[in-house]
Amino acid sequence: MRPIIRIDRLRKVYKGGLVALGDVSLAIDEGEIFALLGPNGAGKTTLIGIACGLVNATSGRVEAGGHDIVRDYRAARRLIGLVPQEIATDSFESVISTVRFSRGLFGCPPDPAVLERVLRQLSLWEKRDAKIMTLSGGMKRRVMIAKALVHEPRILFLDEPSAGVDVELRRGMWDTVRSLRDAGVTIILTTHYIEEAEEMADRIGVINKGELILVEEKTALMRKLGRKELRLQLGEALAVIPEPLVPWALELQDDGLTLVYRFETAAGQSRIDELLRELRQLGIGFHDLETRQSSLEEIFMSLVRKAS
Fold first, then answer.
1. Are 231 and 200 in the same domain?
2. Structural domain for 59, as ranges
3. Mean pLDDT in runs of 10 for the chain (308 residues)?
4. Are residues 207 and 38 in contact, defined by beta-carbon separation less than 8 angstroms?
5. Residues 215, 26, 52, 221: what is their CA dihedral angle, to the nearest 10 degrees?
6. Domain endpoint, select from 178, 193, 222
7. 296-307 vs 218-225: helix axis angle to the nearest 10?
8. Does one domain contain both 291 and 278?
9. Do residues 157 and 19 share a domain?
10. Strand, helix or coil at 17?
11. Cα gap 246→239, rounded to integer Å
């Protein structure tokens, strides 16, 4: 895959000395879903604002499809669709009117077929004549996406796309985003819902205090930084960890009926067979065991804590 977005040493310092971004460099491949994670104030929205030409960078450069967003603004912006975090539409307009107007803002000629295709893709066609004020929050979010897509961009930025949307509508939004990627649109999203990134993203970037601290393929990230946990349901409760097991750094839970062993997945430290043999030698029986791997949320929190 070739990069469709190139960000090179991007820096943004506001008046008063606040560093919102500090020398951020990133390449986003054509056709991928890239999730940018970070706590509030980390710089996510500033980065998107600069890439979309809405915020001026202090230094550095951004290219979209080979076009510099400052020197060749019109060509770069033509390739980009943006769905901001806040819902901002004309409540008294109909769905189709506001989407048609957004297409015209980019100098695109009227094309009823494109309007219909975009609205059908987002399950809005039956609501095309409805006033926006009558729509649910999830439908309004879909209208925002339609406005961003109607000029047929190759890149779509989604800033907190499912904010304020209930769980059922959120999952519908995920399906919509996947279908857009399948149609060839590159997706860059910011989200507070870690499950959203875990469900959809091909790659993940973690930003904190204006610094990009990690960029990694999702599966590789979870394999490299994830921890596994072995939980043994004991036949009889233990009051304390037996002396021979102290080096294993085990933990007793559930009033001594559950023995927990945690290990790094990447380091090859599982040694589960060895632990089970030692338990048998000590006469400690168990009737059930299970393993689980760290979620992306746990990995994210760990990375932010280390970077703070």
1. no
2. 3-222
3. 90 90 93 88 90 93 94 93 80 92 91 93 91 87 90 91 67 80 90 76 88 84 71 90 89 90 64 87 88 67 68
4. yes
5. -10
6. 222
7. 70
8. yes
9. yes
10. coil
11. 13
